[in-house]
Specification:
about 500 residues, Helix Hairpins, alpha+beta, 3 helices
Length: about 500
């Protein structure tokens, strides 16, 4: 707390008196910055009155002496001392501080807008209301977006059913293909074995035909011999019959004894038996020939049957190979079903993404505060039809700083961390404390929509201003944090040394 001592000096001349009020700091005994002069006007014809003059009952009483020049010189000396002290203090202050009134309060202004088009069904805040981060501000009609969520749910369910069906088809096709492949491979093996058996039967039948043909030839060769024996037996029979007839006639005549007749009869019976045996031999040879011919026919039939067996086995092999190819095609069908299943899974992922998007769009019907602060510039009402990106209101939080635009000639000794005094026009009787946070990387003109181009040939050197960010000391703005607003004008003084 400062205490002051006030000295008043009056100087008269030319009809006016000036009173110089000097306030001294009781601690430093130096003149304070706030010196003030009060000027009073007196009648021009009033005579100079010495300090020791006085009037008694309308009569003038003269003092001991008049010395106005001494008082004037004394007053001038005191004024010179005061002015010198003031000048020294001002020089000392100016050499260690940089000041500017081109400064304003800045802060975070969060624009609140809708991410989706819709109709406002409820507005939950008022102008200048204090809100917390995440607090609900505006509600949109959610029915359209609820329908989209239900549609996305239905599409997801359909995609999941398709995936399940495709997966079941994969298992079924795989099992069927495995069974058909095993059966076809067994049929192929059986057909190959049947072909081998039929080919062996053909070889065996082919081998039996020459033997049967040899039997035929042998039988054919035996028939002439048997026929020759029959002819010989006939000749012997005729001779024996002729001898028997002759001996019988002679025996009737008694020319020969009965013994010779019996011998002739016996020879005749033998010839008859031989002829009969020769004829049977011929019949046997013919029967053997017929049997041999039947054997040849049977061998040829067996050969034909064996060849037919080979053809049938080959046909069966072809059919088995066809079944194997069909089973292989069934494996390709399994691959097709696998592809369908992968496509169904992709459809599930797409449906899930669509569902998440629909749910996200539905969540956007509730518009919440992006940060804690106060509501400003609210321009939304119930029933408004808004589009995506339409500004609804703004949230201004309680984090403030000052942007001071210093001349570039003031930045020689300025650096982050230096202490700052801030005066706000809204609170002229309170000095806020802070510090330099950072210095802008470019002048304000460089960030303008049309920055100046000094290469045009008509360059005029103008002192540029560089924005400097100054942050408040939290203890300094206690009690004012809810009253300070971005855009307020400020005067700042930075202690650079």
């Amino acid at each position: 707390m400062e205490s002051t001592d006030t000295n008043n000096f009056s100087v008269n001349g030319h009809g006016k008196s000036s009173v110089i009020v000097i306030e001294k700091d009781m601690v430093t005994n130096m003149p304070k910055f706030e010196g003030r002069t009060v000027e009073t006007t007196a009648p021009s014809e009033a005579p100079f009155v010495a300090p020791d003059s006085e009037k008694v009952e309308g009569k003038k009483v003269k003092g001991k002496g008049k010395k106005p020049l001494g008082f004037i010189l004394a007053g001038l000396g005191v004024g010179a001392v005061i002015a010198g002290g003031f000048g020294y203090r001002y020089w000392q202050f100016a050499s260690t501080h940089q000041e500017t009134d081109n400064a304003t309060v800045a802060g975070h202004i969060h624009q609140v807008s809708s991410k989706i088009p819709g109709t406002v069904s409820e507005v939950l805040v008022n102008d200048n209301q204090l809100v917390q981060q995440g607090e609900l501000l505006v509600k949109l009609d959610p029915r359209d977006y609820q329908n989209k969520v239900e549609q996305a749910n239905a599409a997801l369910t359909a995609a999941q059913r398709q995936a399940q069906a495709a997966q079941a088809n994969i298992a079924l096709a795989s099992q069927t293909t495995t069974a058909k492949t095993a059966q076809a491979q067994g049929d192929v093996s059986g057909a190959l074995a049947a072909i081998s058996t039929a080919q062996a039967a053909v070889e065996e039948a082919k081998a039996g035909i020459p033997a049967a043909q040899a039997d035929v030839q042998q039988a054919e060769a035996g028939i002439p011999a048997a026929q020759a024996q029959v002819a010989q037996a006939n000749a012997n029979l005729q001779k024996a019959q002729a001898d028997f007839n002759r001996y019988d006639a002679l025996f009737q005549q008694g020319a020969i004894p009965r013994q010779q007749l019996d011998t002739a009869r016996a020879a005749y019976d033998v010839a008859v038996a031989q002829k009969s045996a020769a004829q049977q031999a011929v019949q046997q040879a013919q029967a053997k020939l017929a049997s041999a011919r039947v054997g040849v026919a049977a061998a040829q039939s067996r050969l034909a049957q064996a060849q037919e067996g080979v053809t049938s086995a080959q046909a069966k092999l072809a059919a088995s190979k066809g079944g194997l190819q069909q089973a292989t095609a069934g494996g390709q069908q399994t691959n097709v079903n696998q592809g369908q299943y992968e496509a169904a899974k992709a459809s599930i992922n797409q449906a899930q993404a669509s569902l998440k998007d629909a749910q996200l769009q539905l969540s956007y019907t509730n518009i919440a505060a992006p940060a804690a602060g106060r509501i400003g510039r609210k321009n939304v009402e119930v029933g408004n039809r808004i589009q995506s990106g339409t500004p609804l209101m703004a949230v201004v939080n309680n984090e403030y700083w000052v942007v001071a635009n210093f001349k570039e000639t003031q930045l020689e000794d300025m650096k982050p961390g230096q202490p700052v005094e801030v005066k706000l026009d809204s609170f002229p009787h309170h000095t806020f404390k802070g510090k330099v946070d950072s210095i802008s990387p470019a002048s304000g003109a460089q960030f303008a929509l049309l920055p100046p181009d000094n290469a045009t040939g008509n360059f005029t050197k103008i002192v540029q201003r560089i924005p400097v960010k100054i942050v408040f000391d939290p203890a300094s703005i206690q009690g004012y944090d809810s009253r300070i607003t971005p855009g307020m004008s400020a005067e700042v003084s930075v202690e650079v040394k």
